[in-house]
Design brief:
- The complex is a heterodimer of chains A (203) and B (621).
- Chain A is globular and about 50 Å long.
- In chain A, 41% of the residues lie in helices and 17% in strands.
- Chain A has a six-stranded mixed β-sheet, with helices on both faces.
- Chain A contains eight helices and six strands.
- Chain A starts with 7 loop residues before the first strand and ends with a helix.
- Chain A has 203 residues and is an alpha/beta fold.
- Chain B has 20 helices and 24 strands.
- Chain B is globular, with a radius of gyration of 27 Å.
- The two termini of chain B are 37 Å apart.
- Classes of the chains: A alpha/beta (203), B alpha/beta (621).
- The interface between A and B is large, with 59 and 57 residues.
Chain lengths: 203, 621
């Protein structure tokens, strides 16, 4: 049976190569395991050449996979500058979860512009949204020897907060659905590490 | 087993719109599939290519969309179900075949998928391909979700075969790249793709006399298709009230979201159209008769809105029709639930307060960039060194179009696939400046060859640089006729670029490796002096896409390059201002500026070390 749920919109943003789309698919698949109505939107193509990658998952009664400005309930940012860039998607009730490891864009590395000061960046986001959860996803990934799974750490945090009506079991089931056997173990560790971190923000 | 071949299950599969189309075609017994990749349609041909052998389906990457449509239509003429897919601008390339194929028709189901790209996520324009259905008289279906994409693909095959016409399945980026649950059905056992051809030249060879007869038959078929559209369950109404909304495709989903969140589900009646050519006039009239006023919600051009207005006028219905004409629905770019809510709010004169949107402050941009080690960057660097700022640089469509960005800034004109070659000739006729055109290998096979033959025969004067990275990189590394690297190792190319170029009548031809900077510049200098005499010259700048090479040959990098940190870069930084590899970054320590190279990004291509003495290789374990 498909469950009923009010619309819940999750916006994902990251940099090409960070595994943003896989993470998005992970959340979508977990919602499907939970029998929730779910749609996902991805933008493929030119964005992959080191540019910004955006995607979305909408759950429940939402019919459109597109998240309009001001309509994201949750923002998952795999990079802090991209969390700030996603601010137009947020409203005062939005929960933002961001990785704290900057990936300076080329415009910054060559000195054409400056990477914003992180504390100021976080403060600016915090004043506009309900809460900002900062995750040192790279550090957490390293701590469980899953260096390449920062993206799964972030989804673990999302799952741990309990904001989504999706059980831990459904997430674990989804991970097995989307990953080949050989990649499963480190990603399960990453998910658990993220989940534990996220749980401290749960209500 | 490929995941799209998994037998019917009780649980829905989580499919991309494009995958749902593939599955729908497989369930319809498709046997021949041909396409040239193009975002947002590429996953259709890519998935077919992955599963073709296993499923017993003939799958080919054709050199362009016109060719793919012709290959697929020949199959359908022989009674073999076929499909071709393309992006919106691909249908322009295939339009010549398309318009007359509509006259000739097919013997077995043939589905043409055309994927529009509102908001130009990965395209040069946002044309509305629905008009192609109208001017050709070909039936068209428009899905809103992956689930519908699956079902409508099957319906498209049925309609195509029943009426003996190809059927368009028109999608937009948000449908192609939306992933959602799809309940799949059984796939019939593979029949093989042997067809039967019955000679029938006076119906299949379109000389004018045949064309006249077929034109009348087409009009008759369109009349019958109208009946099919009027009765189709793909067009349906929902809700109640004396206000009406007429919509299709992804816009239908935005409308549903908008009505739900505005609490208007029970006050507005919706006519959702899935069979959008021929447009079901009687159904539209019936709908209009039951409402006081109607809002048409669609992306891009007022395609449905015009039909609705015509219907109302012909039936003398005194109903107010709003949409693009009244400025409520924008013409440009994608719609979203908030845009639709604003339009509905204004239409109903009901206050709707848009969410307060925080403008993000000025942030550093993150434009896409040529990858570290990309040979295109090396080619551009050398060409710029030799031909300078004064030359005109027509370019073409592919990753290499990114050469337009600083610091390379080496792109002056672009309209479509192949335009780099032909416009170079035109520029050379009216300008007294040197012209150097760029085109990628796959794009050259797609649309560059006629332009080159034309240039030779008409005495144009320019240098064409074919950027040969051995793959169709931009759309995801699809093969083309000149491919040498494959998953099974290196092969002799089926079509040699150099022989092809010589065969086009070009005498001054050279192949260079752009990663060898000095040698490349020497050839460019030589050619620069000879173009005045030679007319057209071609340099094939050949070096594999590093991403593709790594994937095909499982090559591990053995060296990276580092700068000499004892020297200050403050007075130079030419590696940044002229080459601009994304592996470079600037760091200041003790008041001294250094350019450093990120080990993990460096591909070891060595180009930077050839332009700066303080950059040297380091072995890595």
């Amino acid at each position: 049976m498909i469950k009923e749920l009010r619309a819940l919109r999750i916006f994902f943003t990251g940099v090409g190569g960070q595994g943003t789309l896989l993470a998005t698919r992970f959340v979508g698949q977990a919602a499907l395991e939970e029998n929730l109505p779910v749609l996902m939107a991805e933008i493929h193509g030119m964005a992959q050449r080191g540019g910004v990658v955006e995607s979305s998952v909408v759950l429940g009664s939402a019919a459109s996979p597109t998240i309009a400005d001001g309509e994201a309930d949750i923002v998952i940012a795999f990079e802090p500058l991209e969390a700030a860039r996603a601010l137009p998607k947020c409203n005062s009730k939005t929960v933002v979860i961001t990785s704290t490891t900057p990936i300076p864009p080329f415009t910054v590395t060559v000195g054409q512009s400056a990477y914003p000061e992180l504390d100021a960046l976080y403060k600016m986001i915090e004043t506009h949204v309900a809460s900002l959860i900062r995750v040192d996803a790279n550090e957490l990934a390293n701590s469980v020897s899953a260096e390449r799974s920062s993206n799964v750490i972030m989804i673990g945090v999302l799952a741990g907060t309990g904001i989504l009506p999706v059980s831990k079991t459904s997430f674990e089931q989804a991970l097995r659905q989307i990953l080949p056997e050989r990649l499963l173990e480190p990603n399960q560790r990453a998910f658990d590490a993220g989940y534990g971190f996220g749980a401290q923000f749960g209500s | 087993m490929h995941e799209l071949l998994i037998p019917q299950t009780n649980r829905p599969q989580f499919l991309l719109g494009n995958e749902a189309i593939v599955r729908g075609a497989l369930e319809s017994g498709v046997c021949v599939v041909a396409a040239y990749p193009g975002t947002p349609s590429s996953e259709i041909i890519d998935r077919f290519s992955q599963l073709g052998d296993e499923a017993g389906v003939y799958v080919e990457y054709s050199v362009n969309e016109k060719v793919s449509m012709e290959v697929a239509c020949a199959a359908a003429i022989c009674g073999v179900r076929s499909l071709c897919s393309m992006k919106h601008v691909g249908l322009n390339v295939a339009a010549d075949a398309f318009m007359t194929l509509a006259y000739v028709g097919v013997k077995a189901g043939m589905v043409i998928v055309v994927a529009d790209d509102p908001s130009l996520h990965s395209s040069q324009n946002e044309q509305d391909s629905r008009y192609y259905a109208k001017i050709s008289g070909v039936p068209m279906l428009e899905p809103s979700t992956p689930e519908e994409a699956h079902r409508m693909t099957m319906e498209a095959f049925r309609i195509s075969e029943k009426f003996g016409t190809p059927c368009l399945l028109r999608t937009t980026t948000r449908v192609n790249h939306c992933r959602g649950p799809v309940r799949v059905g059984p796939i019939p056992p593979a029949k093989g793709f042997q067809g039967e051809f019955k000679k029938d030249p006076f119906n299949l060879v379109v000389i004018p006399a045949v064309g006249r007869k077929l034109r009348l038959a087409l009009l008759e078929r369109t009349r019958k298709l109208l009946g099919e559209s009027e009765a189709s369950p793909l067009n349906f109404t929902s809700g109640k009230g004396d206000l009406g909304i007429i919509t299709s495709g992804i816009s239908y989903l935005h409308v549903r979201d908008a009505l739900l969140s505005m609490g208007l589900e029970d006050k507005v009646k919706i006519l959702k159209l899935g069979f959008t050519n021929p447009q079901p006039k009687a159904l539209i009239n019936e709908f209009l008769s039951g409402v006081n006023k109607a809002l048409v919600v669609e992306e891009l051009e007022p395609f449905l809105e015009e039909a609705v207005k015509i219907s109302a006028q012909e039936s003398k219905l005194p109903v107010e029709i709003a949409g693009k004409g009244t400025g409520l629905i924008p013409l440009a770019f994608e719609l979203d639930p908030v845009k639709v809510k604003s339009a509905i709010g204004a239409f109903l004169a009901k206050g709707y307060e848009q969410p307060k949107v925080y403008a993000a402050p000025e942030l550093p941009q993150r434009p896409p960039n040529l990858c570290p080690g990309c040979p295109h960057r090396a080619t551009y660097y050398s060409v710029k060194k030799v031909f300078g700022e004064e030359a005109i640089y027509p370019t073409d469509i592919g990753c290499y179009t990114l050469g337009v960005l600083p610091p390379l800034k080496i792109a002056d004109f672009l309209i479509c696939m192949g335009s780099g070659v032909s416009t170079a000739g035109g520029f050379s006729k009216v300008l007294d400046r040197q012209v150097v055109a760029f085109i990628g290998d796959s794009t050259f096979f797609h649309a560059g060859i006629p332009g080159l033959v034309n240039a030779v025969s008409n005495g144009h004067k320019f240098l064409l640089v074919i950027l040969d990275n051995g793959t169709t990189a931009m759309t995801g590394h699809q093969p083309h006729p000149g491919v040498e690297l494959t998953a099974k190792g290196r092969i002799e190319p089926k079509v040699s670029l150099e022989k092809l170029v010589r065969g086009c009548g070009v005498n001054l031809v050279a192949t260079i490796n752009p990663l060898q900077v000095k040698k490349s510049q020497a050839v460019l200098e030589d050619f620069k002096n000879k173009i005045k005499e030679a007319g057209v010259a071609v340099i094939i700048s050949k070096s594999p896409c590093p991403l593709f090479e790594t994937r095909m040959l499982k090559k591990k990098k053995k060296i990276v390059f580092r700068t000499d940190e004892s020297k200050s870069c403050a007075d130079c930084k030419k590696c940044l201002t002229e080459l601009g590899c994304p592996a470079f970054y600037v760091e200041s320590s003790g008041g001294v500026e250094h350019v450093l190279i990120n080990d993990s990004l460096c591909s070891g291509c060595s180009v930077c070390s050839q332009i700066c003495d303080s950059i040297t290789p380091r072995k890595i374990s």
